[in-house]
Design the sequence.
């Protein structure tokens, strides 16, 4: 599918994205990471699993209902070293890229 086709599908069929729960999507995403190191799997599970409560509360638990202001507020609650926050942000970005590529969210 070309980029133009993707854009057209969102304009012509905006409701074509099947609503999916964030917790289910996190588990599906983590199952695709079986080939990475155990430490990486553990970190992804901790960051995405334990920290998914905030976006779930803001979005009725559905992936396609999460908006950028929700994510900005979510990241604003993080504490710890800048390097830790940067790494966590990279992992969360990887998850949202997975959601977009999987056509779970526009």
Sequence:
């Amino acid at each position: 599918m070309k980029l133009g086709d993707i854009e057209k599908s969102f304009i012509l069929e905006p409701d074509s994205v099947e609503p999916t729960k964030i917790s289910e999507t996190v588990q599906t995403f983590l199952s695709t990471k079986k080939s990475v190191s155990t430490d990486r799997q553990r970190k992804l599970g901790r960051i995405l699993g334990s920290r998914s409560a905030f976006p779930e509360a803001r979005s009725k638990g559905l992936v396609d209902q999460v908006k950028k202001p929700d994510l900005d507020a979510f990241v604003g609650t993080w504490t710890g070293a800048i390097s830790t926050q940067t790494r966590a942000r990279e992992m969360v970005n990887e998850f949202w890229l997975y959601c977009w590529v999987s056509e779970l969210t526009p």
